[in-house]
Design a protein that fits this description.
Strand order of the largest sheet of chain B: 4-7-5-6-2-1-3-8
Helix content of chain A: 55-70%
Strand content of chain A: under 5%
Distance between the termini of chain B: 56 Å
Structural class of chain A: mainly alpha
Shape of chain A: globular
Number of helices of chain B: 5
Order of helices and strands of chain A: HHHHHHHHHH
CATH topology of chain A: Ferritin
Largest interface: A-B, 21 and 27 residues
Oligomer: heterodimer
CATH class of chain A: Mainly Alpha
CATH superfamily of chain A: Ferritin, core subunit, four-helix bundle
Number of strands of chain A: 0
CATH architecture of chain A: Up-down Bundle
Number of domains of chain B: 1
Distance between the termini of chain A: 34 Å
Shape of chain B: elongated
Number of domains of chain A: 1
Helix content of chain B: 10-25%
Structural class of chain B: alpha+beta
Largest sheet of chain B: 8 strands, antiparallel
Chain lengths: 255, 184
């Protein structure tokens, strides 16, 4: 189907699209911070590409959101307050060292692989088509990130300990990835959006296996309950300030 | 490592990862072309780096990489000075790919594929068989040393490029918008 049945469903789908778009945008921004600083020139180019791809994916979701609610993507990105962002806490954490960045990208890419595959089954055609388009590129991201995971995890003692430290730091944030917004169940029942809890458990099984193959062990602790998407760490505000700085200097400027 | 300044005039040791030569198949009806090189710790990473460095946007149907140490390069001048001998390097019989560059404007493209016991022998054979072909530069690599992108990789490696077009600066409305703002 190409249109949604009623206003309430439209708002629910729009709410979830905003979460998905914000995840891509904030991760893209964090990744772009490596431009000019990645370990070697080739990786600098590769990772800048990935950051740009994630930005493109954010735009696909923001545009779909615009078609449902009329909200302008540029206004959403440059004129919202940090507390209005709905991204995961995992993606807003500072970029850390290369191990931290690789591990975060790996966790996000593996989640996206399953999430996008499920979104391709959505009865709402624009979502299914967007997921198919994004999925092609994400398969490449995952191959790139998984190659790094394995080489750093099984590389030297230092690379392994840095990866393990990154995992210890990121793991407490992992369960937020499948936390569903209020009334999301309705979208699952109507096959508009996938069951996040089911995807979450498949994802956790997969990453536990692959992390263990890379010589890494998730810590035995986590957050007692996943925070809501309107709760953020202290790291989001400086990121948003920097990202919005130029746009807010001259509100009528464009590009 | 000492600072770069103290090495002025001295050849820097290459502290980076090994180098891999990159060959690109723009279109399956055209021969593979040498496009440059990338640094990478191993062939899989070299293939991924090659994809990001060389084919984010251009049309491409396949990529090959080979460790630089396994690719024999010879310029026309070098060959004139020191001709390759066809039977000086006996080894295992392998399939070799020979690339030639007809002039400085055209690419170093696949010119012959033949069996030989060494890259030198493969080059000597190619020179003998195609003496009519002028080339300013030759490259020879054993097929066994190549790591190639898989046909199944095409969708994720090369298809997204089709929707990423270069946008000329004139297509951005920035200049016009800024002019309007200044006029106000």
């Amino acid at each position: 189907m190409t249109s949604l049945p009623d206003e309430q469903t439209t708002q629910l789908v729009a709410g979830r699209l905003l979460e998905m778009a914000d995840d891509e945008l904030i991760l893209s921004h964090r990744n772009s911070e490596w431009t000019g600083h990645a370990p070697i020139l080739e990786e600098d180019i590769a990772f800048a590409n990935i950051a740009q791809d994630e930005m493109g994916h954010a735009l696909i979701w923001y545009e779909l959101l615009r078609s449902l609610t009329g909200r302008d993507p540029d206004r959403l990105v440059f004129f919202r307050e940090p507390c209005e962002y709905r991204n995961l806490q995992m993606v807003e954490l500072p970029k850390g060292d290369w191990a931290f960045t690789v591990l975060r990208q790996y966790l996000f890419d593996t989640w996206e692989a399953g999430h996008l595959e499920a979104l391709e089954q959505s009865r709402f055609t624009p979502v299914a088509e967007a997921a198919q388009k994004i999925g092609k590129e994400e398969r490449y991201h995952l191959r790139h990130t998984a190659a790094w995971l394995c080489r750093l995890g099984r590389g030297t003692e230092e690379s392994n300990s840095r990866m393990q430290a990154a995992l210890d730091q990121l793991w407490p944030f992992h369960s937020q990835i499948w936390a569903a917004p209020p009334d999301y169940e309705r979208l699952v029942t109507e096959s508009l959006m996938p069951d996040l809890a089911r995807l979450g458990s498949l994802w956790e099984d997969r990453v536990r296996t692959e992390l263990s193959e890379a010589g890494l062990t998730p810590p035995g602790f986590g957050q007692p309950s996943a925070p809501l998407r309107d709760e953020h760490t202290e790291h989001l505000q400086p990121l948003i300030e920097e990202m919005q700085q130029v746009a807010r200097l001259e509100t009528e400027a464009g590009w | 490592m000492r600072s770069l300044g103290s090495f002025v005039g001295v050849t820097m040791p290459d502290t980076q990862w090994p180098r891999f030569e990159v060959f690109l198949i723009e279109d399956e009806r055209k021969p593979a072309e040498h496009v440059g090189s990338v640094h990478a710790p191993d062939p899989e990473m070299a293939l991924l780096n090659a994809r990001d460095v060389f084919v984010r946007r251009p049309h491409c149907e396949g990529l090959w990489v080979a460790a630089s140490g396994h690719v024999l390069f010879r310029t026309a001048e070098e060959l004139a000075r020191d001709p390759v001998s066809q039977n000086g390097h006996p080894g295992e019989e392998r399939r070799y790919l020979v690339f030639g560059k007809p002039n400085h404007r055209e690419p170093l493209a696949l010119a012959a594929c033949l069996s030989a016991q060494s890259p030198e022998e493969a080059l000597a054979q190619a020179l003998k068989e195609s003496s009519a072909i002028e080339s300013v530069l030759w490259a020879v690599v054993s097929e066994a040393e190549l790591t190639r992108s898989d046909r199944n990789d095409r969708v994720s490696f090369f298809e997204p490029a089709a929707t990423k077009n270069y946008k000329l600066h004139a297509e951005y409305p920035t200049a016009r918008l800024m002019k309007e703002i200044r006029q106000k």
